[in-house]
């Protein structure tokens, strides 16, 4: 079984969000991934186009979480980035509530099964841990909370 926390540590970032609009949040996370050299800055426009196109149908289900995601040829291995917002972001979620945690997932264009497994595991982890468990976290504690939740399931 793969480890979400390991993927995040090796190929992702965790940031405290400043933006308060879902499209600006996505851009903020993508720019942070570029700064951390997880993606090439020349690939940002194409990634943003794909992410925004997919996000026109909201990736926020309910309970304060959003899962923007895409597969793209510039991505060579799975990337998971986490953005945290203390104030909440209007994400056009199904329950109308603001989003506090954003899990942005990027995968290679040919990734099918692994990408679906990650999205499914993230969803299961959040549901099985209790929806508020991760909302209490900050950028210093969320990876530890994810590791703990992974050990418990």
How would you describe the overall organization of this protein?
There is one protein chain. Helix 1 runs antiparallel to helix 5 and helix 2 runs antiparallel to helix 3. By secondary structure, this protein is of the alpha/beta class. Strands 1, 2, 3, 4 and 5 form a five-stranded mixed beta sheet that branches. It is globular and about 40 Å long. It has a single domain, classed as Mannitol-specific EII, Chain A (3-Layer(aba) Sandwich). It is built from five helices and five strands.
Briefly characterize the structure:
The protein is of the alpha/beta class. The chain has helices at 4-11, 22-35, 44-55, 113-129, 142-152; strands at residues 14-16, 65-66, 69-72, 79-89, 99-108.
What descriptive keywords fit this protein?
single chain; 153 residues; alpha/beta; Mannitol-specific EII, Chain A; five-stranded mixed beta sheet; 41% helix; 20% strand; globular
């Amino acid at each position: 079984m793969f480890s979400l926390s390991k993927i995040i540590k090796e190929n992702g970032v965790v940031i405290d969000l400043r933006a308060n609009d879902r499209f600006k949040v996505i851009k903020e996370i993508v720019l942070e991934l570029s700064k951390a050299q997880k993606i090439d800055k020349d690939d940002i426009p194409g990634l943003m186009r794909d992410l925004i196109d997919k996000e026109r149908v909201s990736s926020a289900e309910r309970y304060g979480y959003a899962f923007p995601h895409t597969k793209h040829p510039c991505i060579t291995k799975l990337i998971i980035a986490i953005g945290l917002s203390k104030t909440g972001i209007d994400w056009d979620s199904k329950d109308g509530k603001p989003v506090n945690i954003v899990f942005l997932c990027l995968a290679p264009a040919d990734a099918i099964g692994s990408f679906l497994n990650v999205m499914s595991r993230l969803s299961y982890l959040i549901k099985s841990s209790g929806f508020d468990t991760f909302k209490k976290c900050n950028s210093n504690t969320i990876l530890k909370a994810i590791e703990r939740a992974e050990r418990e399931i």
